[in-house]
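Incident log, structure service

09:12 report received: a user says their structure output differs between two submissions of the same chain.
09:20 pulled the input from the user's history:
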Amino acid sequence: MLPVSRPSRLALALVAPLLLTALVACGDDTGGDDGTEGAGLESLTVEGDVGTSPKVTFDGQVSVSKIETETLVTGNGDEVEEGDQVLTHLWIGNGFSQREALDTYKDKKPELLTVDESVSKVFQTAMEGQTVGSRVLVAAPAEEAFGEAGNPGLGIANKDTVIIVVDLVSGVFDGPEGTDKDAPDWTPQIVETDDVPSSLDFEDTPEPADRLRIAPLVQGDGARVEKGQTIVVDYLGQVYDGKTPFDESYTKEPASFQIGTGNVIKGWDQTLVGRAVGSRVLVSIPPDLGYGEGGNEQAGIKGTDTLYFVIDILAAG
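09:34 re-ran on a clean worker, output below:
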């Protein structure tokens, strides 16, 4: 369960990104394709820097029969390979109506995408082989991007051409990267399985304090996390003196969410803003900064329980 601030929203997994859920959307077969090839990427002008919302200008309708890509800005980060995860900002438009359909910059919520079959070929093509920090322009048949139905929720019919600007904002670390730090006496022992945390051992751990405690175990080498950013983390949570975790992500997929905006429990917002990407922290969170007096019965968390988390900050954007 991701530690959201409202217990009713506790979940064992994150909701799939909007773009991925659209693959099963329903819609009609109408669109802008009359069977003839129209203009391609050469009819588009894209202005703005990577990291800002692009301004896309159409010189007439765009209609392509296959995926077209153009690298507008080449980043200086690592090359993106198959299987990598990337935080991406996306601008999506309709080549037929020449209208914007989606801009993740407006909500400050980049998408965490994996370069594999979990996304359509269009997004794989846009990301694989590029470098982090790049901006890529894509034109593709809507069926290639979203499946046979297109994406009615974005106003894109299956015969339309979809225009996508992809900003590869940040790569995602496989684990903590930085300088190891000594753990203070109040922290439990981290038990590892296959080199990743699997539980916490509270033997000889003193009674928890009634305040937030933070132990940096790895000082990351990356940029500092800013309030309102989307971050990617691996984590494990266990109540004080508990025998097993109530949740963890190490055997699943990393979690991504906005930080410092009330989307997670207060203890996380107060802990992670200002930390460097690549860091591992162990935190002790009193009930008032966790789930409050009500606790969370579903998770076995009482209103008096102190929560302990191991958190690895893998990316921010």
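09:41 both user submissions now match this output. Likely a transient worker issue. Closing.
09:42 reviewer note: The longest strand covers residues 161-171. Residues 5-36 have pLDDT under 50 and may be disordered.
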